[in-house]
Amino acid sequence: MKFLVCISNVPDTTTKITFTPDNKEFNKAGVQFVINPWDEYALTRAIELKEAQGSGTVTVLNVGEADTEPNIRKALAIGADDAIRVNAAPTDAYFVAQQIAAIAKEGAYDVILMGKESIDYNGFQVHGMVGELLGIPTVAPAMKLDMSGNTATLEREIEGGKEIVEVNTPFVASCQQPMCEPRIPNMRGIMTARTKPLKVVEPVGEGARTAVAEYALPPKKQGVKLIPAESAGDLIKLLRNEAKVI
Amino acid sequence: MSVLVVVECDGGEVKKSSLEVASYGSQVAQMLGTTATAVAVGEATEANLAQLGEQGISKVLYDAEPRLKDFVNGAYTKLIAAAAEKEGAQVIVLANSNIGAAVGSRLSVRLKASLATNVVELPKNDGGSFTVKRGAFSGKAFADVVLTGDRKILAVKKNSIEALHEAGKTAQVEAFSASLSDADFADAPKQVVMQDQAGGVLLPEADRVVSGGRGMKGPENWHLIEDLAKALGAATACSKPVSDVDWRPHHEHVGQTGITVSPNLYIACGISGAIQHLAGVNSSKVIVVINKDPEAPFFKAADYGIVGDVFEVLPKLTQAVKELN
Ligand SMILES: Cc1cc2nc3c(=O)[nH]c(=O)nc-3n(C[C@H](O)[C@H](O)[C@H](O)COP(=O)(O)OP(=O)(O)OC[C@H]3O[C@@H](n4cnc5c(N)ncnc54)[C@H](O)[C@@H]3O)c2cc1C
């Protein structure tokens, strides 16, 4: 079975977010980039399923410029077999989805996995766009994925519960916890990753359908109002009379 | 040109987030000088749908096909696309929910529309293109996004828009059929499992949330969280390590890798306020922090705080709420 796992390159979760002086772009200076945490669930689960099947391949795919390659190598070190980088800045979800769909089609992948959303753009869009472009089912967000032959059984989160869904390959799933315990690379993985194939291809399709005009930080908080522990009950009065939330 | 609003229903009731979405859609319609039609998905009653008039909706399309009770991506997408065609909708508004994300992203390709999710404000209309504010960087920033397409789909974040209530106004409910076939239900769920909701309040929809962290010491102490939540009519939540060690179920874990919530009131008990936790809660309107460590980072993000022991403070708070009611 051929797995395609889409990963994005995002600022480390602890990054303090700042922008260029014109607020048009995220300020990358001094920021460490990591594999999007949600994508790690997709990657690890694909590797686990491949191992359980005893055959098949896991290909990682990233739409990004050359500076994303350290994280592509990291995905190879975790256990993917090969990688493809589409040489373009990921301008919006639709642009990225077109690249993924084109590669998925050409490579005839059976299972296309990705994280629920990227922790920078927070779009939660690419999965459905890829599915619609390819005319195949999408399951989003998926908390569990098991395969039996060409049939996948997934748990899909719904507000207040879950749906158990069965789909046949090919399909797309966007993954979230608690799907698996994400793996970290070991020494052997890091060594072998260097020699695994990483193919660079040029983008296809139409341009983006949305554009960010400007970024902004949330307004600063006023500062905390402390209530002495002995008179904790006063907090409730403040929440009613001052904050008006109860 | 018209505006189509996707309304999610559950057990006959319109979800709270969908009342917000309906209000958002009717305000966009007003801005464009047109009317807003809703299409209902899930299990609805005619009486509840008619009440969407209070949110400014003039007409509601409803397909009573029983298999639409539970979410089915293929069928929902086709149904909403058919409603959009029928109404000639240029703008589609839905909730930034798991249903909204699943359907909205497919619809955007099918209808060749520009899509913005996580939207927190009404759009500005610049001669046909929309600029909307959306949450980005896991709640640490906002982005103004320009949608240039002739058609636009907006997924509105919960609790970011006040639901309108114009008492007495009703919407006309119209039977609608998208002529769905068996093939459209190929990805229908085999089973739907609902979780036990403490106090019956659904965390993603909750107006108030009481949340516990590792400072609660163990699951045997969670009654303190539950008692306060019950008194407040709040949902309960937890930090990641708490669900990792199974003190609480995974669906209660909020944060960067858990659920994002934006209630009016978030009360954090024995939670340090790590950046990954804040990412899921920092768009709450009012944040209350109870922590015995005055240096806990959460106090920086809080509106109200008590430096104290949760085991002493929580019973006092519950008592004070009971006295208020
Ligand atoms: C990639 C990544 C993603 C993550 N995603 C998430 C996420 O989604 N959600 C999340 O929550 N975390 C997440 N984390 C973990 C996060 O970094 C923190 O470890 C976690 O939030 C800490 O949880 P806590 O505050 O409950 O526990 P602790 O950090 O152990 O803090 C416990 C707090 O309780 C206080 N306390 C102890 N006893 C008492 C008492 N008797 N009375 C009052 N206060 C008391 C202490 O002073 C302390 O501040 C993530 C981490 C990583 C690396």
TrEMBL record, chain A:
Any GO molecular function: electron transfer activity
Gene Ontology CC annotations of this record: cytosol
Cell inner membrane among keywords: no
InterPro entries linked: ETF_a/b_N (IPR014730), ETF_b (IPR012255), ETF_beta_N (IPR033948), Rossmann-like_a/b/a_fold (IPR014729)
Keyword field: Electron transport, Transport
Residue ranges annotated for the Electron transfer flavoprotein alpha/beta-subunit N-terminal domain, each copy included: 23-210
Record CDD domains: ETF_beta (cd01714)
Family the entry assigns: Belongs to the ETF beta-subunit/FixA family.
Entry protein name: Electron transfer flavoprotein subunit beta
Species name: Hymenobacter chitinivorans DSM 11115
UniProtKB/TrEMBL annotation, chain B:
Entry keyword Aminoacyl-tRNA synthetase: no
Keywords linked to the UniProt accession: Electron transport, FAD, Flavoprotein, Transport
Protein name: Electron transfer flavoprotein alpha subunit apoprotein
InterPro entries assigned: DHS-like_NAD/FAD-binding_dom, ETF_a/b_N, ETF_a/FixB, ETF_asu_C, Rossmann-like_a/b/a_fold
Molecular-function annotations in GO: electron transfer activity; flavin adenine dinucleotide binding
GO process annotations (BP): fatty acid beta-oxidation using acyl-CoA dehydrogenase
Pfam family, one: ETF
Cofactor(s) listed: FAD
PANTHER family: ELECTRON TRANSFER FLAVOPROTEIN ALPHA (PTHR43153), ELECTRON TRANSFER FLAVOPROTEIN SUBUNIT ALPHA, MITOCHONDRIAL (PTHR43153:SF1)
Domain annotation Electron transfer flavoprotein alpha/beta-subunit N-terminal: ranges: 3-192
Binding site for FAD: R214, G270, I271, S272, G273, A274, I275, Q276, H277, N291
Top-rank taxon, per record: Bacteria
UniProt-listed SMART domains: ETF
Cofactor note: Binds 1 FAD per dimer.
Lineage: Bacteria, Pseudomonadati, Bacteroidota, Cytophagia, Cytophagales
Entry's family note: Belongs to the ETF alpha-subunit/FixB family.
